[in-house]
Amino acid sequence: MDRALFLAMSGAKQDMQGMRVHANNLANVSTTGFRADLQQARSMQVFGEGTPSRVFTMAERTGNDFAQGSVINTGRDLDVAIQGDGWLAIQDANGQEGYTRAGHLKVDQMGMLQNSNGQLVLGRNDSPIFIPLPINKIEISKDGTVTVLPKGAPPDAMVTVDRIKLVKPDNRSLFKDTDGLFKVIGNRDPLDADASVSLAKGMLEGSNVNAVAEMTSMIDLQRHFEMQVKLMKTAEEMDKSSSSLMRIS
């Protein structure tokens, strides 16, 4: 009975973890550039004193769906969507380089180019991009070059400020950090810029979450969780019955 109880408990715990993953995906169905998280687990023997006869479910680092989301036309000068494979280079709170597909950019009061979360966008030499204010216009070209029209300058006096760093790592080497940025597993060094990555200006890439599929998965996990709870209750009843027989004998 203890083996059945252990297996049911382990399965129920993993079902709860899976529901959290899918609930988070649903919560980000409208988040720009969001990549859906994937539930992952494997069986693992319990080692200790005696024979390793017990097996539990061990959750592994959550994987991600890297399929491209739908592209939305916004017409905004600071909205960019990556065409095909590739990532925007962003500086996280610790000064490390991270990567995102969310191209809803803005310029703060100090002239720093940021993403929608206030994280700095990196340019040449892996340094944050600074926009010399005040300006009348800002444009981002297909290759990531940022040009501005200084305030009071003639319309044909556009000035090149910097170039957004675009990278193209192997998606299999990436993991999603707690701040939502993707990082390269086991590597803290900045990646090299890739000239083959291009941008579409005035557009945003939406989330790649399939709401219907996520809801279906949550319903399936909920039913599986209920089955595990029933199994634990059955194991308890069987244990009580065995104890009663032992007292009678």
TrEMBL record:
It comes from the Bacteria. It is found in: Bacterial flagellum basal body. Keywords: Bacterial flagellum, Cell projection, Cilium, Flagellum. One of its GO terms (cellular component) is bacterial-type flagellum basal body, rod. Residues 81-148 form the Flagellar hook protein FlgE/F/G-like D1 domain. Residues 8-35 form the Flagellar basal body rod protein N-terminal domain. Residues 201-245 form the Flagellar basal-body/hook protein C-terminal domain. GO terms for biological process: bacterial-type flagellum-dependent swarming motility. InterPro entries: Flag_bb_rod_N, Flagellar_FlgE/F/G, Flg_bb/hook_C_dom, FlgE/F/G-like, FlgF, LlgE_F_G-like_D1. SUPFAM superfamilies: Flagellar hook protein flgE. PANTHER family: FLAGELLAR BASAL-BODY ROD PROTEIN FLGF, FLAGELLAR PROTEIN. The basal body constitutes a major portion of the flagellar organelle and consists of five rings (E,L,P,S, and M) mounted on a central rod. The rod consists of about 26 subunits of FlgG in the distal portion, and FlgB, FlgC and FlgF are thought to build up the proximal portion of the rod with about 6 subunits each. Belongs to the flagella basal body rod proteins family. This is Flagellar basal-body rod protein FlgF.
